[in-house]
Write a structure and sequence with these properties.
Distance between the termini: 10 Å
Strand content: 5-15%
CATH superfamily of the largest domain: P-loop containing nucleotide triphosphate hydrolases
CATH topology of the largest domain: Rossmann fold
Helix content: 40-55%
CATH architecture of the largest domain: 3-Layer(aba) Sandwich
Number of domains: 2
Shape: globular
CATH class of the largest domain: Alpha Beta
Structural class: alpha/beta
Radius of gyration: 20 Å
């Protein structure tokens, strides 16, 4: 009955997506696939919002995939996500359960809903090291010679991403990977902006009081560099700057709260993009279990 059906629950940060999804997955005999680019990493729990308790409903643990599957020093990217998503989805279908894709990494959500086709490429360390010797301007010129009209120009200003784009363009690997095609019900939790901001402030206060700084200290103690923390962004970037002595506590807290709110705005921009592209979205102003349940029941009867 649920063949190829997928429930997608997304929205800005701090809107209660995970707790709602777990309740619904428990109700509809489902399993969760996380669409979060940072929750894949082990030992990054508080800053990424791995609320493990949310996955327990009525004393039972709702199965969740794509959480704690990589070490912080590993490369995790969109190609790997699509591969892992396909594996998890097929496993859930084989169990005759209903998959729920849940998260706030809108690139991942977009990739599944728009069925991206990506070239699956290894990044040989020797070639990577060779390209690192070139300046950013030289790399930009080399890339634009191969790809004069890039869809994504933001990578042109990030040396590591630019090198990877050059390798993809030059390796001529014909192996293509795409998400498994699904028939999806797309539910977006989108409260008023002021409510989102209040929830962000309250959550940040709680995280700072309950171990987030210690979590970042532990990452540093285990060999994660300040540069890598900066790459992870948000909590890890700003707490890292605080621990490096670049920010005092109050400045760190204020700048971090502001950065998270800007991130929420970008997530909303992605959501509007999906809508403009013709993706049908059912909006909830809060994590309303009753309304979501009705949407899913009607979807499964189609």
């Amino acid at each position: 009955m649920n063949a190829n059906k997928l429930i997608v629950i997304f929205g800005p940060t701090a809107t209660g997506k995970t707790a709602l999804a777990a309740k619904l997955a428990h109700r509809f005999n489902g399993e969760i696939i996380s669409a979060d680019s940072r929750q894949v990493y082990r030992r990054m729990n508080i800053g990424t919002g791995k609320d493990y308790d949310d996955y327990f409903v009525n004393g039972e643990r709702v199965p969740a995939h794509l959480i704690d599957i990589a070490n912080p020093d590993e490369e995790y990217n969109l190609v790997r996500f699509i591969s892992d998503f396909n594996d998890a989805l097929n496993l859930i279908y084989s169990r005759e359960k209903l998959p729920f894709l849940v998260g706030g990494t809108m690139l991942y959500i977009h990739a599944v809903l728009k069925n991206y086709s990506l070239i699956k490429t290894d990044f040989p360390s020797e070639k990577f090291s060779q390209l690192e010797k070139f300046s950013l301007a030289e790399l930009q010129k080399r890339f634009l010679e191969k790809n004069p009209r890039p869809h994504n120009t933001t990578d042109l200003n990030d040396k590591e991403r630019l090198i990877k784009a050059i390798i993809i363009a030059e390796e001529k690997n014909d192996e293509i990977i795409s998400p498994v095609k699904t028939n999806s019900l797309n539910i977006c939790i989108l409260p008023e902006r002021e409510i989102i901001y209040k929830r962000i402030d309250a959550r940040l206060e709680n995280r700072l009081k309950n171990g987030m700084i210690e979590e970042v200290e532990n990452l540093l103690a285990n060999g994660i560099s300040f540069e890598k923390l900066d790459f992870f962004g948000l909590e890890y970037r700003y707490v890292g700057n605080y621990l490096a002595g670049k920010l005092n506590y109050n400045d760190m807290k204020q700048k971090l709260a502001s950065a998270i709110k800007k991130f929420a705005k970008r997530q909303i921009t992605w959501i509007r993009k999906l809508e403009r592209e013709g993706i049908e979205i059912h909006y909830l102003s809060s994590p309303d279990e009753r309304k979501a349940k009705e949407l899913i029941e009607n979807f499964l009867l189609r």
